[in-house]
Amino acid sequence: MKKKLGCLHAHHSNIEYIEQAFQSDEDIELVHFVDPGVLKHVSKGSDDVACKVKEQMEWIVSCDVDAILITCTNYIALLENEVVFNPPIPIIKIDDPIFESICSAQQPQTILFTNPATVEGTMARLHQYAKQHGKSVNLVAEVIEDTFDLIMQGKKEAYNDAVLRTLHTLSAEQNLISVAQLSMVHAARRFEEQTARTIIHPLRSLVECVKKNMSGTL
Q1: Are the C-beta atoms of residues 48 and 67 closer than 8 Å to each other?
Q2: Does residue 218 belong to any structural domain of this protein?
């Protein structure tokens, strides 16, 4: 019997990335939940957004899933404390595998974002992850300005082009490059095809990470 992975997205555009990643996996059934309203409230500075995300997760658990995958780095940053359910189920965060890859690299690195509201929380989690695993990272974060609204408006091609242009601009540097958000994966893959240079992105080892976390339920 297939196990259910509940996927919490901030935008419907993330669904296709996860579907593609798991398309050859016969053991996992994906169940998608989307609510772009959370990001709108984040931009307004609402105080109760973290509570809303926890409520969403409780709703997903009530749908009898075996694990939850959170694909939005902004959602993850809102969860200051680990959420534990009874009975416990794995909570998998989209940036967990990318943190592992970043912390395994030795050379200077640049991590790119399009959503400025995500940077502080993600970087705090990254440095916490590095500390917990006894690693040190030589890393700078950069935001591709005036880009995130494009994907929220459904202007996917314009968004991908903006990310791709930035990757080409940075390619002159020797830094290892990462893209922090799932929405940036398409542009990262295009860049890799055009240059044969590897970009660290959230999907590179996601399936392996999910299976590892769900090993007790699969």
Answers
A1: no
A2: no
